[in-house]
Amino acid sequence: MNGVIVAGTDGSAVADEAVCWAVDDAARRGAPLRIVHAVEAWPYGASGFSASGTADFAVRAGERMLTEAARAAADRRPDAVVTTELVEGAPAAVLRDQATAAAELVVGSHGVSAVTGALLGSVPAGVAGHVDGAVVVVRPSMADPYGGIVVGVGDSEECEPALAFAFEQARLRGCPLRAVHARRTPSRVSEPGPDRTEDEAPRAVADRLAAWRERFPTVAVTQDMACAPPAAALVDASGRAALLVVGSRGLGAVGSLILGSVSRQVLHHARCPVAVVRQAPLRSSPAGHR
């Protein structure tokens, strides 16, 4: 993947960490980084910079934020190609629009307006699971820098986009991948569906992972079967991870994009950056790349 990586910033400390995460990933991928700041409205009702004789405070502040963020990114990764963009609009809407042409969108878990103790800000909540592709939500300095990649995996095609992203991250970092499949109960009672027993789930997960192991032979993979609610198992695993990757269920009852309950709980409670990946399975399946 060599498309642009977009990082949103609002000048907060956690946004600075998101920019650092994004420029590191851009360098690993050999991709350009675009740092974006959204201004709610142009000054005095003007539709652009040139129509205003004097720059509005919000615009000047946004320009300073972008300059500082770009400088920090360049200092961290001198080889990275970094550009900035100041855009008019509500932050979540701006970032959703930016994500449509991006390989990856990176945001902080909360911004300057978040109240003390807030678990997740309105911007990441309004972006993750609402766009195709990967949205990475970075939390304040809680990840294990030496940890591997953790991915939530099920026995259905819904997890394919997350697996694609997780295997690629593990390959780029040269680190192991831990695939966590959680089930709420150890009972052997059949689940809804024809002749479906609990014993079939580990086999289905192993079969799904096998295709990705074949495509990424250098990635060391551990399959972890947990008897716990999925969100709880993934949050627990996040304490020993550099990145946690989860999928998004996709469409709601009225056709709008939604964030699944597991992804939402993980975003609120994970102790490392979280990538929420939503993408059509046919675009991510290993079979599609053969």
UniProtKB/TrEMBL annotation:
Q: Pfam families given for it?
A: Usp
Question: UspA domain spans which residues?
Answer: 1-139, 147-278
PANTHER family given for it? Answer: ADENINE NUCLEOTIDE ALPHA HYDROLASES-LIKE SUPERFAMILY PROTEIN (PTHR46553)
User: Which family is it part of?
Assistant: Belongs to the universal stress protein A family.
Name of the protein in its database record: Universal stress protein UspA
